[in-house]
Predict the structure.
Amino acid sequence: MIRYRSWCYVGVLLCAAIASPAQAQLTPRPQLSSSQAVGPALRHGELRGIVQDEQGQPIAGAVVSAVGSTSVFAVSGADGSFTFRNLPAGPYLVRAHLQQYLPARGRLVQVAPDAKNATTIALTRRADATSAPTVLAASVGGDEDQPAAQPAEPEHGHDEVAWRLRHLKRSVLKDTGEAIAQTGGDTTLFGDSLSGLSRAVGHSARLASSLFDELSLNGQFNLITTTSFDRPQDLFSMNVDVPRSVAYVALEAPGSAGDWTMRGSITQGDVSSWILAGSYMRHTQARHAYEAGVSYAMQQYLGGNGEALSAMRDTSRNVGSLYAFDSWTIAPSVRLGYGAKYARYDYLVDRGLWSPRASITFKPSQRDSLTFRATASHREVAPGAEEFLPPSIGPWLPPQRTFAHVSHAAFRPERHDQIDMAVDRTWRGGILIGVRAFRQRVEDQVVTLFGVAVADVPAGVGHYQVGSAGDFDALGWGVSVSRVVGNHVRAAVDYTQASTEWRGWSGDRDVLSARAPSVLRRDDRVHDLTATVESVVTPTATRLFVLYKLNAAFDDSATFGAVTGPNARFDVQVNQSLPFLNFSNAQWEMLVAVSNLFKEDWAETTVYDELFVLRPPKRVLGGVTVRF
């Protein structure tokens, strides 16, 4: 009867969403649901412009980039125009790049919400782009005293990388070769050989510089310090994680067909780790919007925790992953998505895990924001994967913590099949309402335990235990409501309800019954309420994000025999622009964040993934971001 009632509620909400058309339509925003860790963006704006030369003539084919709270790229059309749509409000550094033109100095443009902002970029043609040396045939015209014209050398790049390649320190062989070639005599043979080597080296340098001639790079560099604690008073005691310094760098290369991105992050200490990832994304204007990427992360433990040392093979772990997805626009109203992700974990018995996914999106009318979406996915993830896989949102951090199996058995991956159906629509006043229904089938649900002391090793926040609670089926539904309040604040509320039926227990049941009895459940009903608020303070260029999550199934107090406060998770992030530090086209920003959320990516998680993370520590981080 519970299931029938739930489906009746979903049917009523679907009928209400389709009933009457909205009179004022806004740009459709992504649906906010409990499967998303960060809410939708604030009110958007549009940035248009024209790329011209020094004489005011339009330039076609120039790559234009806008770097701010997000990075977007476009190519100027035949009339020199370009357009960036759906940009979150805020400052953007706009630049243009084209071969045979000098790079233009970046221009800072403030994108206002719900407005069409305009700018003009002027490029100056290089002095050597139009002139070419005059070549005369032997004994034909010209002054007799004028030296013979030399063949025109291939055109080379004029950016910073090419300049450095052309001004490298001359080698001994190259200097000697030119000297011998001028002396003649018996050394001519050696002179020709070394001169040929010199020309080969010069040609290679020009070839290398030409590879970067059409490459426009944008980047970001972060210096972050992070630590974790259980209670605020622990910050003044020894029961706090040792603060770690993290360096993060990202490079983006926009192109006419797609964008390349390279990211890396590294830290060092008792846990020395790094993560490196690269990806390619084809522009969404194409019929096929491809996206592919690869990542590799490694962790090495040099501390004194015996449990961590015994759990890690050769004191280190490494994880590699690759993925490929495509969004295929079959018709103007139908879009098909498909792809898969493969990850290899060196600490698993079955090291390779596959996670395919397929979805279809249907929009009946281009004049109406009503959108239907259906998704089917199979997800395989290893315990502790959050430490190694690149996050889709939030700051990039390399593996920070160590973990061991709760019963010292082999790690078992969690396998999760899900079918999701959703519909969303924007109503009068900019209110976005989304409704979803889902079904999950899970094997070996992962349990994560913090604050558990083992033998003589005290409980710490830098090490945790993982296990398996068993298998279950879940059937649920959810509804979300979001709205822009004023011009710079957006609020959203998401409610999800699920009924679960457990099919069997795992081999870790005996250990979990002693250390975490709250995770061993019978049939259960899960209620989840998540609220998010995003705000931009325009005068001070401050961005604020707050997430607060309540769930009736959180039960840390029953597990550890102490009251730990309300059953909630939270995430607070503050980004403050530092315009007084901006120089040489670089933008400086300060970041401060506090969170006790463990799952950073909720896209395809189960109803128990975050609930079965018991007593997660609070993570605080702060640092500076430099965009260039």
User: Anything to note?
Assistant: Confidence is low (pLDDT under 50) at residues 12-41, 131-214, 556-566.
